[in-house]
């Protein structure tokens, strides 16, 4: 197959793209993330051959509810273990080759979030294969996990080394209490409509390798083309949430439950229902929050000073939309990516302010064609820094690398409000940079003879 030339308009080869890169997770959902180690090269290739038929493609199905969605991805060490030739390994993005743990300081994973404190084996060379299985219910999940178990269980030289189960909380929200998964970019050619009619779909090459991106060019693609084409880089992070500390912080700075809710909304950029401050700045609007046709239909350009939604709020930092259009040096569309968050651990009961010692949080997954200018740029320049909003010392109030000395500004008249001494509310427990090949590339890996 010939390489696609920059600027050429083509359709996505949906039959060759893993569905997890393009399709939303089901709701409600249950799921499991598994990490495997390959100790025997031949067994590793046989594992890939067995997993191949379990992976769904990105083509829209006539039945929108699959039994389960399986995504298969590999770390740099995993591709090495499979025997991918060195010249091919050298063609992958430098960040992927180094791995997340090696880039922890730059990402703000320091102190409690440092790799020395990560769950083993996360961040170690032992992690080779990452599997994500998501399903609408537990019975169908168990059925597909049994297929995965059979694929690796009888192969000497393949070890299951880590597993994290996840499920949608009864509230349908994150452990912090906020509706999640809103604001995903649409991808040109995917057949999935945009949720924000004010924003056109992203060029396919921003998410899937082998197609022109927003610059009109092709992203650097691993070689050979049989391996790189229709693949995507996947970032996953296990993030422990300090829910009690978050509630204590708001409780100490608010005179009422209503003010607590408002402060929380100002920090996040949305009310807990999912209603955006940009459309409902004064009070929560659960009906709007539940409306997928309207809860993402907004921009920030009419609120330059952040009176409705603070410039430093989490949602506005992660996706400034048109708020930076006055600054010709920033093209927000170059930093968009697919986000897939799932919850793990039980809810901290409503109203409880003391930590119960139970691990809970978010398995956060990002997919895109550019590790450095998508995930790493957003994490370092927008979430962990405030230069772009004129507040260099301010980090994202919810997920930024705060250490107790940070602040968050809420614009208002006549005097702004400044929240001081922001502690860390999210702790990184580990993560990996992975590559999710296309379905043909999975066959290529299974048939390696090096």
TrEMBL record:
Cofactor dependency: heme b
Keywords for this protein: Iron, Metal-binding, Oxidoreductase, Peroxidase
SUPFAM superfamilies, per database record: Dimeric alpha+beta barrel (SSF54909)
Domain DyP dimeric alpha+beta barrel: 68-152
An example Gene Ontology molecular-function term: peroxidase activity
Domain of life: Bacteria
PROSITE patterns linked: DYP_PEROXIDASE
InterPro entries: Dimeric_a/b-barrel, DyP_N, Dyp_peroxidase
NCBIfam families (alphabetical): Dyp_perox_fam
UniProt-listed PANTHER family: BLR4509 PROTEIN, DEFERROCHELATASE/PEROXIDASE
Family: Belongs to the DyP-type peroxidase family.
Name of this chain's protein: Dyp-type peroxidase family
Species this chain originates from: Kribbella orskensis
Lineage: Bacteria, Bacillati, Actinomycetota, Actinomycetes, Propionibacteriales
């Amino acid at each position: 197959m010939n390489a696609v030339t920059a600027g050429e308009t083509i359709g996505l080869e949906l039959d060759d793209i893993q569905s997890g890169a393009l399709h939303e997770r089901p709701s409600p959902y249950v799921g499991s993330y598994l990490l495997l180690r390959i100790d025997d090269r031949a067994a590793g290739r046989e594992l890939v051959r067995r997993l191949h038929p379990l992976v769904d493609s990105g083509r829209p199905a006539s039945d929108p509810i699959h039994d389960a969605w399986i995504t298969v991805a590999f770390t740099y060490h995993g591709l090495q273990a499979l025997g991918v030739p060195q010249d091919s390994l050298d063609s992958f993005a430098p960040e992927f080759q180094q791995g997340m743990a090696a880039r922890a300081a730059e990402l703000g994973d320091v102190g409690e979030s440092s790799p020395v404190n990560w769950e083993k084996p996360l961040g170690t060379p032992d992690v080779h294969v990452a599997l994500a299985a998501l399903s609408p219910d537990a019975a169908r999940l168990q059925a597909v996990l049994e297929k995965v178990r059979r694929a690796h269980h009888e192969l000497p030289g393949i070890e299951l080394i880590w597993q994290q189960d996840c499920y949608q909380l009864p509230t349908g929200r994150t452990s912090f209490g906020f509706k999640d998964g809103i604001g995903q970019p649409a991808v040109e050619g995917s057949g999935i409509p945009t949720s924000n009619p004010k924003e056109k779909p992203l060029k396919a090459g921003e998410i899937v390798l082998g197609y022109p991106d927003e610059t009109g060019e092709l992203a650097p693609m691993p070689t050979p083309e049989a391996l790189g084409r229709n693949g995507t880089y996947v970032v996953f992070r296990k993030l422990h949430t300090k829910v009690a500390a978050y509630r204590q912080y708001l409780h100490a700075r608010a005179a009422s439950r209503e003010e607590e809710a408002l402060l929380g909304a100002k920090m996040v950029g949305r009310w807990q229902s999912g209603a955006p401050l940009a459309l409902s700045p004064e009070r929560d609007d659960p009906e709007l929050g539940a409306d997928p046709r309207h809860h993402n239909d907004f921009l920030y350009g009419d609120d330059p000073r952040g009176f409705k939604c603070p410039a430093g709020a989490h949602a506005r930092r992660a996706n400034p939309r048109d708020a930076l259009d006055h600054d010709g040096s920033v093209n927000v569309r170059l930093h968009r990516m697919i986000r897939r968050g799932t919850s793990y651990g039980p809810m901290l009961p409503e109203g409880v302010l003391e930590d119960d010692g139970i691990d809970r949080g978010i398995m956060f997954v990002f997919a895109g064609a550019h590790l450095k200018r998508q995930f790493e740029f957003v994490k370092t320049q927008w979430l962990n820094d405030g230069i772009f909003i004129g507040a260099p010392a301010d980090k994202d109030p919810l997920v930024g690398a705060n250490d107790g000395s940070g602040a968050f500004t809420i614009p208002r008249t006549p005097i702004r409000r400044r929240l001081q001494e922001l502690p860390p509310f999210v702790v990184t427990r580990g993560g990996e940079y992975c590559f999710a090949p296309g379905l043909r590339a999975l066959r290529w890996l299974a048939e390696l003879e090096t």
